[in-house]
């Protein structure tokens, strides 16, 4: 923008001056014009080199600063590389790990999955620094909105932060449902971290008269936001929104109170619309809610779809995930339903980002889908479940803690840190 304005200013000024008939004035203006050119070129160079976090349409490219130069870096383009150091925490140093993701506690003996780090092609992704993170969010509130994979992400962040600062579970002060709606308070930094459970973002109820089960059919009112999260989100400064796997189950879609179609419902005279339709409409409703809430002034991050890795069968038909190291790029490509699911939410995100910018709201993407597609080794599989539970399927959806999910918080810290230094809007937030 500055480049364009500078050129328009220079061209207009130059043409007015050079058309003057008085030679003496022209001679006087020649050195002035040359000086102006030099000044404008300097401004243009500084503008082009100023660090910023680009929009999602520019593929999440950031610019990292060093003492001597500035270079462009797409932190989401790279490779998993071997890393010999121990993880940030383990099941003994973090008591917040749930049994469902506590792979070490329940006997997973291969440890190679813990010794890989994400390496961007054009720069280094800094290690997670819990103290730096807490300083950035001092006096603020962060909420994870979505499903159990989002909660998995939050629990990773809790474990990372608890290594340097004590927290208090204050969930009971805000809700009676402390299983699905949780809040943790770090008094030293006046910082609150919360989880707002809403796997669909929109209003949903069981359609099956026999009640809820893993594969029972649900009614989804895709144009009505779930007030369980929307009524609370205005109190938070940063929202990390994500959802995915619940949309693959049998669903009935309602708009304006009327049945319009379904996903895997198998009903006569009901149009099969597939899971993409429900996914699209749910994100559209969620993003519109965030852009239209009168008192929501927060920064929104979309963490993109997290792929599962069931092999040898579906999740309920003996499927498992027994691999012990990442795929390489030739073994696994982003395509098929995973790519389409990813693009569905990205399209809605792009619209929200554009609409939000008109109201001074910031939307950013933690673009992890392809990155996590290459990590079939990071799931609990048949580890990580309580021995008291009668588990009949392997978990190839969630992620072991510690594990590759911790990388999501390295991304989050990196993006918060860049924005806190480069955006006048976000400087007022952090």
Automatic annotation (TrEMBL):
Topology of this chain in the membrane: Single-pass membrane protein
Gene Ontology molecular function: any one: O-acetyltransferase activity
Superkingdom: Eukaryota
InterPro entries linked: TBL, TBL_C, TBL_N
Keyword field: Membrane, Signal-anchor, Transmembrane, Transmembrane helix
Regions that span the bilayer: 27-44
Residue ranges of every copy of the Trichome birefringence-like N-terminal domain listed in the record: 72-124
Alphabetical list of Pfam families matching this protein: PC-Esterase (PF13839), PMR5N (PF14416)
All residue ranges annotated as the Trichome birefringence-like C-terminal domain in the record: 125-414
Cellular component per GO, a single term: Golgi apparatus
Protein location: Membrane
PANTHER family: PROTEIN TRICHOME BIREFRINGENCE-LIKE 9-RELATED, TRICHOME BIREFRINGENCE-LIKE N-TERMINAL DOMAIN-CONTAINING PROTEIN
Family statement drawn from the similarity comment of this UniProt entry: Belongs to the PC-esterase family. TBL subfamily.
Protein name per the record: Protein trichome birefringence-like 19
Gene this protein is translated from: LOC101494718
């Amino acid at each position: 923008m500055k480049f364009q304005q500078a050129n328009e200013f220079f061209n207009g000024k130059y043409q007015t001056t050079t058309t003057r008939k008085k030679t003496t004035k022209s001679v006087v203006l020649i050195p002035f014009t040359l000086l102006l050119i030099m000044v404008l070129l300097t401004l243009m160079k500084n503008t082009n080199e100023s660090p910023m976090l680009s929009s999602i349409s520019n593929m999440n490219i950031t610019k990292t600063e060093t003492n001597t130069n500035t270079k462009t870096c797409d932190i989401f383009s790279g490779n998993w590389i071997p890393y010999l150091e121990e993880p940030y925490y383990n099941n003994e140093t973090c008591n917040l790990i749930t049994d469902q993701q506590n792979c070490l506690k329940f006997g997973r003996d291969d440890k190679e999955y813990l010794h890989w780090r994400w390496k961007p092609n054009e720069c280094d992704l800094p290690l997670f620094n819990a103290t730096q993170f807490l300083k950035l969010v001092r006096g603020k509130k962060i909420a994870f909105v979505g499903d159990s994979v989002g909660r998995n992400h939050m629990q990773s962040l809790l474990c990372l932060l608890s290594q340097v600062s004590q927290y208090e579970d204050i969930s009971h002060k805000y809700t009676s449902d402390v299983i699905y709606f949780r809040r943790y308070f770090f008094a030293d930094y006046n910082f609150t971290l919360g989880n707002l459970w809403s796997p669909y973002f929109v209003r949903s109820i069981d359609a099956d008269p026999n009640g809820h089960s893993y594969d029972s059919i649900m009614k989804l009112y895709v144009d009505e936001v779930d007030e369980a999260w929307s009524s609370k989100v205005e109190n938070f400064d940063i929202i990390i929104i994500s959802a995915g796997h619940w949309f693959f189950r049998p669903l009935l879609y309602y708009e304006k109170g009327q049945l319009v179609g379904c996903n895997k419902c198998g009903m006569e005279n009901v149009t099969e619309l597939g899971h993409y339709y429900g996914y699209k409409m749910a994100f559209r409703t969620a993003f519109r809610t965030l852009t239209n809430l009168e008192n929501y002034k927060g920064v929104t991050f979309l963490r993109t779809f997290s792929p599962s890795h069931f092999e040898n069968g579906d999740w309920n038909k003996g499927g498992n995930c027994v691999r012990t190291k990442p795929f390489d790029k030739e073994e696994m490509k982003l395509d098929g339903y995973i790519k389409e699911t990813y693009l569905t939410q990205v399209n809605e995100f792009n619209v929200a980002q554009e609409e939000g910018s008109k109201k001074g709201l910031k939307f950013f993407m933690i673009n992890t889908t392809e990155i996590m597609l290459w990590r079939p080794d990071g799931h609990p599989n048949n580890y990580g479940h309580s021995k008291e539970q009668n588990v009949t399927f392997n978990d190839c959806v969630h992620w072991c803690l510690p594990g590759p999910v911790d990388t999501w918080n390295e991304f989050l810290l990196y993006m918060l840190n860049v924005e806190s230094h480069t955006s006048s809007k976000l400087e007022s937030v952090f």
